[in-house]
Write the structure tokens for this entry.
Amino acid sequence: MNLEEKLVQSVIKTIESLYGQTVEAKTVQLQTTKKEFEGDLTLVVFPFLKISKKTPEVTANEIGDYLVKNESIVEKFNVIKGFLNLSIAKNTWVSTLNAMLADDQFGFKTATADSPLYMVEYSSPNTNKPLHLGHIRNNLLGYSLCKILAANGYRVIKTNIVNDRGIHICKSMLAWQKFGNGETPASTGKKGDHLVGDYYVKFDQEYKKEVKALMDKGLSEEDAKKQAPLLQEAQAMLKKWEDGDAEVRKLWNEMNSWVYAGFDETYKRLGVGFDKIYYESTTYIDGKAKVNEGLSKGLFYRREDGSVWADLTQNGLDEKLLLRADGTSVYMTQDIGTATQRFKEFDINKMIYVVGNEQNYHFQVLSILLDRLGFSWGKDLVHFSYGMVELPEGKMKSREGTVVDADDLMDEMIQTAREVSDELGKLDGMTEDEINEIARICGLGALKYFILKVDPRKNMLFNPKESIDFNGNTGPFIQYTHARICSVLRKAAEQGIQLNNSVKEGLTLSDTEVNLIQYLSNFPNVVKQAGSDYSPALIANYVYELVKQYNSFYHDFSILKEENEDLRAFRLLLSKKIAAVIKSGMGLLGIEVPERM
């Protein structure tokens, strides 16, 4: 039982003794005391006023008096309106640190067979182009959210839905047929997703030429776009695909295999992965079946042209197309199909979709439709809606001048990390392999941290150079602090200093050391809150603040040169636990921390 849990139980006993009623633990609201007030933890007394039948100030004073007299961990208190600020006895903080040192899973809960099952969908790429900067934010948020939910004791399934069918896929295929001369990833040395993406761009270039030529002959722009031969050929190819044409399907399978190999390489490099991957080329079939089933039950209706619609006016929305007049599906139908497959395979308690905020309306509608179709989790599905991410102009290469390629971005980050680290002398004495590894860890850590520290719901500007600063709220600053602590612990071992697994009780600690233990002890609460709010940013900014406080302590207090052996051991063990929490916290963000840097 940690300090806060002990205090919660003490408050419950206090309320029962003072007012003769038992309260639930969830009504005992403890929070870190604000810096402008004296105290360590603050109890909100408003929930107890109906029981005490007294003013907030009187109730707070009565509870405070009782705790000081009957609870050894509470040294003194003060009252600010309805808030009871409690000062914890300093000798208690050593016990608190010892409890943390003894807990190898500090801050984390372990899932059981009965834990709720959360499925998180993220990435959702198209197989006609490489992953880009937008996908990077999506993947990082989705993967980190999965780690955080698992740390909160949920069973988690990481899932991806690949958009592998449709006119955009056929555009790449047709362009390769016409202009590719049989080239492959093997013959060109290009990643498969890049090669296919180049032909998607090639289609657009040639299509625009055809449109211009038709307009020069007197056609309107609208008619020229419809009549351009390339588009008509792509539409014909899509029809063949849907009809199961063997030749078209063979080409589709081959080019998609190139893309998947490229995606896998990018995912591996980015450090993300999936437990289950779904493909639109199969889910849309289930979607059409489910919509037709809903139609037969009167949940949807068919218009005169044969199209199928959902009437959502009773929900304050409009009418939503589910099947076109020719029977082909739309994205909503495919999402229904994907949900159908997932529901058959897994007993999902919560479904979370990590998708940009431009799709807010889509998921509002999807939730209503899934609930209407009988999916128990449909009404409560979560759309983890995140903002767009952009780069300052000229900072990065892009394939078309607007889309920033994920592989290019990672290359640039790693190179920038190497250059900055070299300028600061942090690579001195390292081998080439060590330099490459540090540059990789530092560059990708900078990228991930800079993106994840921002409230996911906000749009953000990603500045690569700024993200690799070794000072301030950046990944490298945190990574360097972890490496610094590891260096201190190595030097202690080299000097023959042997550490136990606990600190000697009764030590006199400074306010700085007490504050550091208290902040460290809050890690489980932050992990819990990050899971409740679906916010990796809470973890990122907690770790940064912990690192900031540790660096102040490191600057002001001697560790290895401390003459008092018990105090020296305390500071080393405190440093060791802080390093462990930095590693755990950054791990929840998918970020590695080096031991040397």
